[in-house]
Write a structure and sequence with these properties.
- A hairpin with a 2-residue loop joins strand 20 and strand 21.
- The strands form 7 sheets. A 6-stranded mixed beta sheet has the order 7-4-6-5-9-8, with no helix packed on it. Strands 16-13-17-21-20-18 form a 6-stranded mixed beta sheet, with helices on both faces.
- It folds into 4 domains: about 160 residues, Molybdenum Cofactor Biosythetic Enzyme, Chain A (3-Layer(aba) Sandwich); about 55 residues, Molybdopterin biosynthesis moea protein, domain 2 (Alpha-Beta Complex), CATH 3.90.105.10; about 90 residues, Molybdopterin biosynthesis moeA protein, domain 3, CATH 2.170.190.11; about 70 residues, MoeA, C-terminal, domain IV (Beta-clip, Beta Barrel), CATH 2.40.340.
- The protein contains 8 helices and 26 strands.
- It is about 20% helix and about 30% strand.
- Bound molecules: adenosine monophosphate (AMP) and magnesium ion.
- The site of adenosine monophosphate has 19 residues, from helix 4.
Length: about 425
């Protein structure tokens, strides 16, 4: 009996980290920038260093409504002192900085500058305004030097860089930019992305009513979440719809998209041996690498170039598409914008489930955090079940072959940080 020679039927699987490194190795920042109103800059990538021309706060100021005084004047509780000044935040006199006369206090409000000479604020709750004698106050507390004073420059020192080039702006950073006077910000231009779906089975919602769907037809769901995720990442998306089911038309659509886009993103039709036109069309127009990445969901993945545009082909299964977008496309889009933080590190979080049937591929399980902060597993981890991604609030990153026992910490990637 002859033994057949061993034959490799499966192409070698590429580890995710290697795939990502190779993919990012071929991507450089687009280098195009634009200036936008700070109000409109949320989510954009900063294309300048933001250096502060002033101190924040500009002056020592009170963090309480109360009375500013010299500690040396109040050595015991219950002392009565004359109110010699009134300093409200933003008032004309406030900036003038009239010196506090010895043995007197200044009525002061939150944010108002501390008068020269004063070294503490006693909150009004600890003071009693007097009518006899009028214009005096009883201080019920012995102040400690420096109390309730916010120091000049304690937030931002003049000359420091508060936000760096490549920072992806968020609501807090917009506030910080505004606090040092920036009403406009130079940011990376939006990457122009052409989005295509592939598959003859796809129907757009609204085109055909659910009851009228022909057997085998499915609604195009990927198009909706991919477009939304691209927009959240700052892209200017051209939705090119479903790619025409014809070789010549496909090539035309791709080559015309490549002229005015930085990235062409498709979903579907990258599985091995599939009959889609997208693969041969990309190969004819440019270059294409078909990868089998050692992850689940999301094994098939294609990338290459069409003209000067990058090309990325995601798998068609909705969850595969969703997960590979977050793991591989998100960093590409951020790098196109010159962002410095491309990666999210997983947070060790306790699992409340067992995972006893590990895969040889690295798995990304859809989970959600419960009220006690532990991760629960969605029961159906199939790559076609998009419900898992809505029920879940993140992914658990499971190393190949790893078994999980309830109670142990596992690497958790919240969706909120991946979008
Ligand atoms: P494919 O990668 O083209 O072999 O597709 C894998 C699976 O994903 C098939 O069941 C397709 O019907 C489904 N699929 C492909 N594209 C989409 C899409 N845009 N929306 C929803 N499902 C899709
Ligand atoms: Mg298909």
């Amino acid at each position: 009996m002859s033994v057949p020679a061993p034959r490799s039927t499966r192409p070698p699987l590429l580890p995710l980290d290697e795939a990502l490194a190779q993919l990012l190795g071929g991507v450089t920042s687009l280098g195009r920038t634009e200036t936008v109103n700070t109000f409109d800059a949320d989510g954009r990538v900063l294309a300048q260093e933001l250096v502060s021309a002033l101190q924040v706060p500009a002056l020592d100021n009170s963090s309480m409504d109360g009375y500013a005084m010299r500690c040396a004047d109040v050595r015991q509780a219950g002392m009565v002192l004359k109110v010699s000044q009134r300093i409200a935040a933003g008032s004309q006199e406030a900036g003038a900085g009239l010196r506090l006369a010895a043995g007197t206090v200044a009525r002061i409000f939150t944010g108002a500058p501390i008068p020269p000479g004063a070294d503490a604020v006693v909150p009004q709750e600890e003071c009693e305004a007097m009518t006899e004698p009028d214009g005096h106050v009883r201080i019920q507390q012995i102040p400690m030097a420096g109390q309730w004073i916010r120091r000049a420059g304690e937030d931002v020192r003049k000359g420091t860089t508060v936000l760096h080039l490549g920072h992806r702006l968020n609501p807090a950073s917009l506030g910080l930019a505004a606090s040092i006077g920036f009403d406009r910000l130079r940011v990376a231009a939006r990457p122009r992305v052409a989005l295509f779906s592939t598959g003859d089975e796809l129907v757009m919602p609204g085109e055909v009513a659910p009851a009228q769907m022909r057997p085998g037809a499915i609604y195009n769901s990927n198009r909706f979440f991919l477009r939304a995720m691209l927009q959240r990442l700052g892209c200017d998306v051209t939705d090119c719809g479903i790619v025409p089911d014809q070789r010549v038309a496909t090539e035309l659509a791709l080559s015309s998209a490549s002229e005015s886009h930085d990235l062409i993103l498709t979903s579907g039709g990258v599985s091995v041996g599939e009959e889609d036109h997208i693969k041969p069309a990309v190969q004819a127009l440019g270059t294409l690498d078909l990868w089998q990445i050692a992850i689940k969901p999301g094994k098939p993945f294609a990338h290459g170039r069409v003209g000067s545009a990058h090309f990325i082909g995601l798998p068609g299964n909705p969850v595969s598409s969703f997960v590979t977008f977050m793991l591989l496309v998100r960093p590409v889009i951020l790098k196109l914008q010159g962002a410095t933080a491309l990666d999210r590190s997983a947070i060790p979080t306790r699992a409340s489930f067992n995972w006893k049937k590990p895969d040889r591929r690295r798995e990304f399980l859809r989970v959600r955090r419960n009220a006690s902060g532990e991760l629960e597993l969605f029961e159906n981890q199939s790559s076609g079940v998009l419900t898992s991604s809505v029920w879940g609030d993140g992914l658990v990153d499971v190393a190949p072959g790893r078994v999980i026992t309830a109670g142990e910490p596992v690497p958790y990637l919240p969706f909120a940080e991946l979008l």
